[in-house]
């Protein structure tokens, strides 16, 4: 395990180790298994970042459900562009279903607001939001986040699906920027 990694022109140090990641995913899955066991659920992972969390989480879901993915983009380099572009839409029928949005990280909340606006037209029964990482100090929305893996400060991070200009998603641990 490398304590410090260099990705492109930046250095990052370990922030959250993989065993803590596993514990947080398990905690979220246990809560979902209790809350959603009697619902008709479709999980919607937000690509690219949520693919690892979505996969690990879904393996621990113990009720019948579906999973699909939406692809959006809002980051450029190490900061949010503030503009969310819808790249790949939904193909499944979500009318009258409980939709659980799976995010890798929620910081400002702009992406969540955009997704909720787009999905409400499909008439789901309800929409719940699950995020692996949550930055409460960066959050500018009043939308409730139903499932949170870990709260973190407003640092730029990568690994476990999160990237810096497309690199670093494959790291098993989460790293934070140091320079």
Summarize the structure.
The protein is of the alpha/beta class. It has one domain: Rossmann fold. The protein contains 3 helices and 10 strands, in the order ββαβαβββαββββ.
Using the coordinates above, name the CATH class. Alpha Beta
Return residue spans where pLDDT drops below 50 for at least 5 consecutive residues.
none
The CATH topology assignment is Rossmann fold
Which geometry do the CA atoms define? globular
Q: Helices and strands, in N-to-C order?
A: EEHEHEEEHEEEE
The gyration radius over C-alpha positions equals 16 Å
How many alpha or pi helices?
A: 3
- Named CATH architecture: 3-Layer(aba) Sandwich
Instruction: Summarize the main sheet.
Output: 6 strands, mixed
Distance, first to last CA: 20 Å
Helical content (DSSP H or I, runs of 4+) = 10-25%
Strand order of the largest sheet: 5-4-3-6-7-8
Estimate what percentage of residues fall within beta strands: 35-45%
The assigned structural class equals: alpha/beta
Mean pLDDT: 90
What number of structural domains do the residues give? 1
Can you tell me about this structure?
The chain has 179 residues and is α/β, with parallel strands linked by helices. It has a single domain, classed as Rossmann fold (3-Layer(aba) Sandwich). Helices cover 21% and strands 39% of the residues. The strands form 2 sheets. Strands 5-4-3-6-7-8 form a 6-stranded mixed sheet, with helices on both faces. The longest helix has 18 residues. It is globular, with a radius of gyration of 16 Å.
């Amino acid at each position: 395990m490398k304590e410090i990694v260099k990705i492109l022109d930046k250095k990052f140090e370990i922030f959250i180790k993989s065993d803590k990641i596993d514990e947080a995913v398990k905690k979220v899955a246990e809560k979902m298994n209790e809350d959603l066991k009697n619902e008709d659920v479709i999980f919607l992972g937000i690509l690219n970042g949520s693919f690892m969390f979505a996969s690990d989480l879904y393996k621990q879901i113990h009720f019948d459900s579906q999973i699909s993915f939406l692809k959006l983009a809002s980051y450029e380099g190490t900061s949010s562009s503030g503009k969310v572009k819808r790249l790949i839409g939904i193909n499944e029928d979500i009318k009258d279903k409980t939709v659980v949005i799976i995010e890798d990280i929620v910081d400002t909340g702009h992406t969540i607001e955009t997704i909720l606006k787009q999905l409400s037209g499909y008439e789901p029964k309800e929409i719940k939001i699950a995020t692996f990482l949550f930055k409460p100090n960066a959050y500018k929305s009043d939308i409730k986040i139903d499932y949170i893996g870990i709260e973190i400060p407003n640092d730029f991070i990568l690994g476990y699906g999160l990237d810096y200009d497309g690199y670093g998603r494959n790291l098993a641990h989460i790293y934070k920027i140091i320079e």
